[in-house]
Amino acid sequence: MQSSAASIGNIGNNIPDLMTAAQQVGYGDAKDALQLKSDVTVPKELKASQVLVRNHAVSINAIDWKLLNGNMSIIKTYAFPHIPGMDCSGIVVNVGSSVGRLKVGDAVYGNMGYGNAFAEYVRADESLFALKPVNLSFAEAAAVPLAGETAYEALFQQREITRDSKVFICGGPTGVGLFGIQLAKAVGAHVACTSSLRNMDTIKKLGYNVTENISEVMKPNNDDLLVIDYTKYNFGEILHHQNYDVVFDCVGGQEQWESAQQILKPGGRFITIVGDDPHSNLTVKNIVTMGAGVINRKFWSLVGQEPSYIFHILKHDYRHLDDMRVNYIETGKMKPIIDHVYDFYNVKELHEMYDRSKSGKAQGKMVAQIIKD
Ligand SMILES: NC(=O)c1ccc[n+]([C@@H]2O[C@H](COP(=O)([O-])OP(=O)(O)OC[C@H]3O[C@@H](n4cnc5c(N)ncnc54)[C@H](OP(=O)(O)O)[C@@H]3O)[C@@H](O)[C@H]2O)c1
């Protein structure tokens, strides 16, 4: 692994003019649209509220390959070349004049929004970063922001998850689902989820007493995590009338909503981060169809016919990252599960990272390491 830029020892000094960064040069698959360049200008000029961070690691999320493919160009277009990526972790090497919360030398993690993370240096508003959990490596910390915060917001923002709440997670082994399970368990909820048999080991890495024994459904134990093999069973039939408070859908497809209605209690909530069509491009037609579906379901939940239907989209707030760090990660209640760590300086590995994310077969988070922990 090599580095063309300053190392941790050079904090604040000797920030180079040029850096290595991934560059999106068009829309398409990673091998066609993603390059690695070593002569990219370091964004040294800071506005008052900005920080410059020397990245140690970055991680990929589904939205990254969707943006690379152009699936989301209706809401976000880029002038090329463009540095992609959102999640990263590193050390603050410079701060703007009004930055007060973070200082040079702080280890941080954050989500850059729609790009610019996959580089040795990133410049961003201070509000996008929070202190890195002390018990995580940079590689682990980079795996948290987008997926962790999505689960945190979806489950906690309306404070509906409390001790003894019953929470079902569609897609326990998804990047978001793995954080969702841990957050729900951390507050004492009874948690069940779907998984393929292939992913039982992924789920077991969380450390709970994993049970597939469906006969135990009637006596949920707070120490257990009930896992239903979705390739064999329909969770709506298995958990029919089990009065779940929340179904958190990290998979998508109309069947999740249909099964959820069978298990939610009156007034329960279905919170999806995907919607009915997990594979669609974001087109005007799809947005209109999706909007009409959400309005229709909200109407029926208001007149008392169906559970609440909530389509959650990540909002992002560094205070969520702070709260996750202090109350969940540093207390050992939440950790990232890593599928694979790639070498940032090998463009083929970056392509593989995108392809693995796009495959929908990842078993945890994929990270690209810039500086070894
Ligand atoms: N709205 C938002 O703000 C927001 C934020 C973040 C992510 N998302 C969306 O959330 C979705 C999940 O993203 P992610 O990155 O967390 O997923 P991911 O890590 O790519 O999920 C892959 C894993 O899910 C498993 N899986 C697939 N279908 C499943 C099912 N029906 N039940 C259980 N496990 C299943 C796969 O294994 P098997 O195939 O073996 O089951 C694989 O291990 C994506 O569509 C993403 O775009 C939305």
From TrEMBL:
Q: Which CDD domains match?
A: MDR1 (cd08267)
Q: Which SUPFAM superfamilies match?
A: GroES-like, NAD(P)-binding Rossmann-fold domains
**Domain Enoyl reductase (ER), residue spans:** 29-368
**GO MF entry, a single one:** oxidoreductase activity
SMART domains for the chain: PKS_ER (SM00829)
Q: Which InterPro entries match?
A: ADH-like_N, ER, GroES-like_sf, NAD(P)-bd_dom_sf, YIM1/Zinc_Alcohol_DH_Fams
**What PANTHER family would the database entry show?**
ALCOHOL DEHYDROGENASE RELATED, RETICULON-4-INTERACTING PROTEIN 1, MITOCHONDRIAL
Q: Please report the name of this protein according to its UniProt entry.
A: Enoyl reductase (ER) domain-containing protein
From what organism does this protein derive?
A: Rotaria sordida
